[in-house]
Amino acid sequence: MSERVGDIKEFMSIIEKGNDGLGAKFILYGLKQIFMDFFITVEDFTSIMLKELKKYKIGMDMKQGLEILKVQHILDEEMFVFLNKSRLMRNRIAHRYKEPSKEELLTFIEKYRMDFEKVLEIIKQYAVIE
């Protein structure tokens, strides 16, 4: 997760410098993949926390899981909103229906730039590193 958050910052920095052309196309592709990796970690964290809380149910969708984490005070309202919007963006990228444009993805990441790091801090609070 730390690497993905760092990658997002690095990619945004490169894009802000005005890379156009073929390089920008590969940068956008890479940014989509990094975003997907970020959200996979969020999904894993959500599943682990739900199991620890004994709230996990087979067939539960991600939004329901996030709502439980909010009720359990693991996520505040701001993080819930960010992660729910990230879930929708992830679905659009992964399933390619209504795939976000380059501008839409960049606007989303820029708007929520600090929230990526806040999620990382939340996960670190609950991680047991041996």
Cα distance spanning the termini: 17 Å
| SSE run | HHHHHH
Shape: globular
What would you report as the Rg, rounded to the nearest angstrom? 15 Å
Low-confidence stretches: none
Please identify which CATH superfamily we are dealing with.
bsu32300-like
The helical percent reads over 70%
Overall pLDDT metric: 87
Structural class: mainly alpha
| Total number of strands | 0
How many domains is the backbone divided into? Answer: 1
CATH architecture: Up-down Bundle
CATH-defined topology:
Four Helix Bundle (Hemerythrin (Met), subunit A)
Structural account:
This protein has 130 residues and is mainly alpha-helical. Helices cover 76% and strands 0% of the residues. It has helices at 2-16, 22-52, 62-71, 77-95, 102-111, 113-126. The longest helix is centred in the first third of the chain and has 31 residues, at 22-52. The protein is globular, with a radius of gyration of 15 Å. It starts with a helix and ends with a helix.
Q: Which keywords apply here?
A:
6 helices, single chain, 130 residues, mainly alpha, 0% strand, Four Helix Bundle (Hemerythrin (Met), subunit A)
Quick rundown:
With 130 residues, this protein is an all-alpha fold. It has a single domain, classed as Up-down Bundle (Four Helix Bundle (Hemerythrin (Met), subunit A)), CATH 1.20.120.580.
